[in-house]
Design goal:
With 418 residues, the chain is an alpha+beta fold. It contains 14 helices and 23 strands. The protein has 2 domains: 204 residues, UDP-n-acetylglucosamine1-carboxyvinyl-transferase, Chain, CATH 3.65.10.10; 206 residues, UDP-n-acetylglucosamine1-carboxyvinyl-transferase, Chain, CATH 3.65.10.10. The structure holds uridine-diphosphate-N-acetylglucosamine.
């Protein structure tokens, strides 16, 4: 899917079941290489980042197969520790194989990771942590080479609670000698889910408040089956779809306990959220209020991944709203595309000042990253006329069957092959 055309203006109504979490499954798939046996993951999303990770697993020597929506990985025969550049360049999460391969093979060679362009996105914290665990790490010609016969547990304090660095430390520490303590670890729900997945395999990992994680290394792992939590960012995107089109969407499998900062913003804006059993009904038909000020922050703060989609909603919400992006410095690029659709947005370094306009208009826009693409889909659903969105391969990285789902909810959306 490279381009889609959306004829906007239809209130979306109906029911959506939320796919398994992308940011949880990617470290879990890397964790599968730690175990010389089979791991099964239920509710695994069929998205491009998962397909690309499967290619990496197969290159390393794993057997991978689908059993419906369950993905099975047999890592008993791993023979490789190198990840080729073409495949690693497709996504940033390829860096997670650094810790996983060090743990399993005692060495790893991989290029600097790719993925969405969201500013500098260095991997210094990952590399420093691997050195702390005893690895020799060499960086040359765009490649990271790490080697360590047996990682050794250590106390590691992260100066910023990086999600990926926390995951890499956990992965390397599970088979290390001794105890690893992470201080100021990221507290995103996906970290808790990686720890749970590893505990289900027999690992000894303890999580404490304020971002302290203890991993007792060297425990033998076993075959396991894990049911993946639903994707909180995808859930937030469909909530926004109800709000921006003035529709009403019933969300099934919404990970509400991990979405407090998001639902609080919706409720402050006057968007009705009703819980009935396992469903959450988002009714966007009432008039919304603007939000004043919103800033992104590590969990439990407002997620940076919903910042651009939220900007699309604020672009058509009367009054002035300000967003401050504290995580990724280059995450305001989508604002320029929204402006081409008639949005009134001023950018001042890390802040965006949004003056709500009554209507957006369809035009041709270009997605430059995953969540920015989601924002453009939302804007297109609301805009008058037809919006052509190019660069849609980005949205396939994280959203399963988004065109089919939106169409079932009443959107007029078609894919266009160029
Ligand atoms: C993960 C998520 C991504 C989300 C982000 C923040 C996955 C696959 N991706 O990305 O969707 O937007 O968390 O919630 O789970 N940093 C450094 N040095 C490092 C590592 C990070 O300076 O070694 C900086 C980054 O440039 C960025 C900030 O720390 O400014 C956050 O990055 P991090 O938490 O590591 O995000 P990712 O794991 O890349």
């Amino acid at each position: 899917m490279d381009c889609v055309e959306i004829r906007g203006g239809k209130p979306l109504c109906g029911r959506v079941e939320i796919q398994g979490s992308k940011n949880a499954v990617l470290p879990i798939l890397a964790a599968c290489v730690l175990h010389e046996g089979t791991s099964r993951i239920d509710h695994c999303p069929r998205i491009q980042d998962v397909f690309d990770t499967i290619v990496i697993l197969e290159l390393l020597g794993c057997r991978v197969w689908w059993e419906g929506h369950c993905l099975a990985v047999d890592a008993s025969q791993i023979s490789q520790w190198q990840i080729p550049a073409q495949i690693a360049a497709r996504m940033r999460s390829s860096i997670l194989f650094l810790g996983a391969l060090l743990g399993r093979m005692g060495k790893a060679e991989l290029p600097y990771p790719g993925g969405c362009v969201l500013g500098a996105r260095p991997v210094d914290l990952h590399i420093k942590a691997m050195k702390d665990l005893g690895a020799q790490v060499e960086e040359k010609e765009g490649c990271i080479l790490a080697e360590c016969r047996m990682p050794k547990g250590k106390e590691i304090t992260l100066h910023f609670p990086s999600v990926g660095a926390t995951e890499n430390i956990i992965l390397a520490a599970v088979r290390a000698e001794g105890v690893t303590v992470i201080k100021n670890a990221a507290r995103e729900p996906e970290i808790g889910e990686l720890c749970l997945f590893l505990r289900e395999k027999g690992a000894d990992i303890r999580e404490f408040p304020e971002g302290r994680i203890e991993i007792i290394g060297g425990v033998r792992l076993r075959d396991s089956r894990h049911d993946l939590e639903a994707d909180r960012i995808v859930a937030g995107t469909y909530m926004l779809a109800a709000a921006i089109t003035g529709g009403c969407i019933t969300i099934n499998r919404m990970p509400e306990n991990h979405m407090e900062s998001v639902t609080a913003v919706f409720e402050n804006m006057g968007i009705k959220i009703e819980r009935i059993g396992c469903d959450v009904i988002v009714d966007g038909s009432r008039k919304r209020r603007n939000i004043g000020f919103l800033e992104t922050a590590p969990y439990p703060g407002f997620p940076t991944d919903l910042q651009s989609p939220m900007m699309a909603l604020l672009a058509v919400t009367e009054g002035e709203s300000r967003i401050r992006e504290n995580i990724f410095e280059a995450r305001f690029k989508t604002a320029h595309q929204l402006k081409a659709m008639g949005a009134d947005i001023e950018l001042k370094e890390r802040e965006a000042i949004i003056h709500g306009v009554p209507a957006l208009h369809g035009t041709q826009v270009e997605a430059a990253e995953l969540r920015g693409a989601a924002a453009l889909f939302l804007a297109g659903l609301r805009a008058e006329g037809t919006t052509k969105i190019c660069g849609c391969h980005y949205i396939s990285r994280g959203y399963e069957n988004i065109c089919g789902i939106l169409s079932d909810l009443g959107a007029e959306i078609v894919t266009v092959h160029q």
